[in-house]
Specification:
Distance between the termini: 28 Å
Helix content: 40-55%
Order of helices and strands: HHHH
Length: 76
């Protein structure tokens, strides 16, 4: 599903600086071997977590904090 969604995306760059063409290339191209498959699985796990778990916005050191995600840093 992640690959199908990536192939349908359009648009300019976001906080990462990578536009839709770049994300399509990384997520759907065979040029990266199995790395793109691993990345798609990681995306799927993050999406599942965001949909299934109660995550905290105001507890930055909590395991359930999404502060870094909301700040577009993606690392704590």
């Amino acid at each position: 599903m992640i690959k199908k969604a990536a192939l349908r995306t359009k648009g300019g760059s976001g906080p990462s600086g990578l536009d839709a063409d770049g994300w399509r290339r990384i997520l759907a191209s065979n040029n990266y071997g199995t790395v793109n498959i691993d990345l798609r699985r990681s995306f799927a796990r993050v999406i599942q977590k965001l949909c299934k778990e109660k995550l905290e916005v105001d507890k930055p050191n909590s395991k359930t904090s999404i502060e870094a995600f909301l700040a577009c840093r993606l690392i704590l």
